[in-house]
Specification:
This protein is of the alpha/beta class. It has 9 helices and 8 strands. It has one domain: TIM Barrel.
Length: 321
């Protein structure tokens, strides 16, 4: 599977989010206060309060992943602590990730499928294969399966499964059990809704999809400033709901430019928000300029001021996880 195929799921989802108009005012009821951090958690990818891992999904036009990692190393003066990859539901189960440095945490966003295919047992062999392949890598892996389930753009979301979030929970728990039985003890499970729900109705709230504390190691969230939302608006609801119980990973985020020199101020706000929120244990940038169908540039180095702000952020002690 090449980088073009691997980035496909990311492109589809980001393009869907860019066209979804859900007013922020109806999705949050107030400004949540940062939650205290859960301690001694994170599963196979341990979490230390006050220390966040900084990483990215890297897909830069005209560069391989190895070349992209080298560019960011030169620009930032540090390594990517997390390297994020996308896997399709079936037809691709790698035995290794040779371009991902051995000392980095591999974060895998693995597609899902319709709930009944999993809960019926028809997908058990596919799930066991992936469990075996990830276990065989013998490295810490954050597995973000079936992300943004509270949206309306994926086969595994509630909209495409009869408006019944319970099917998602049963699917997650079945997969978790299969991974356990296959010995994939190096895999940390990342449950990661979108920051807002589409549609924004009671049955589709993110809380209805939560598999339970015993089945989740990290809680993730996707959030971009497509409509100029602040980091606090994007992430505080998830932090308030789960930050005292689980470490939080900002699994997909990036600053979108809204005119000249608008990325840097948002990056500085993100840095301040993470510093004030000890339950955040990882920040993973959606770092690409290669999204088909859009001129959006998610890279943090699209202008000098943005790169300087990003470099300053990720070199702080807070981001030394």
């Amino acid at each position: 599977m090449d980088d073009e195929q691997r980035g496909g799921v990311a492109r589809r989802r980001v393009l869907s989010l860019m066209t979804m108009a859900v007013p922020a005012a109806v999705l949050t009821t107030g400004v949540a206060q940062p939650a205290e951090a859960a301690r001694g958690s994170g599963g196979p990818v341990p979490f230390t309060p006050g220390r966040a891992m900084a990483g990215s999904f890297l897909r830069l036009r005209g560069r391989t992943l190895t070349e992209s990692l080298a560019l960011r190393r030169k620009q930032l003066g540090r390594e990517q602590r997390i390297v994020h990859r996308y896997y399709p539901w079936s037809g691709y189960a790698p035995v290794s990730e040779p371009q991902v440095p051995s000392d980095a945490v591999l974060m895998v966003s693995w597609d899902g499928t319709f709930h009944k295919r999993i809960t019926s047992g028809k997908a058990d062999r596919n799930i066991a294969l992936m469990a075996n392949r990830l276990a065989g890598m013998q490295r810490p892996i954050m597995l973000r399966w079936g992300w943004e389930m509270n949206g309306n753009w994926f086969d595994w979301d509630g909209v495409h499964n009869g408006k019944k979030p319970a099917g998602y929970i049963k699917s997650w728990q079945r997969m978790h059990r299969i991974f356990r039985d296959e010995g994939a003890s190096n895999v940390a499970w990342v449950w990661a809704p979108n920051w807002n729900s589409g549609p924004n109705v009671a049955w589709n709230r993110f809380q209805h999809y939560y598999p339970g504390d015993s089945y989740v190691d990290w809680v993730g969230v996707s959030g971009y400033n497509f409509s100029k939302e602040s980091p606090r608006t994007l992430f505080s609801p998830i932090v308030a709901a789960y930050g005292k119980r689980k470490p939080i990973v900002l699994a997909e985020t990036a600053a979108i430019g809204h005119g000249r020199n608008t990325k840097a101020p948002w990056i500085r706000k993100l840095s301040a928000y993470v510093e004030a929120t000890p339950s955040i244990g990882a920040v993973v940038w959606f770092d690409t300029d290669n999204q088909k169908g859009t001129s959006r540039n998610f890279r943090p180095d699209s202008d000098a001021e943005a790169l300087a702000a990003y470099r300053k952020m990720v070199r702080k002690t807070r981001f030394s996880g």
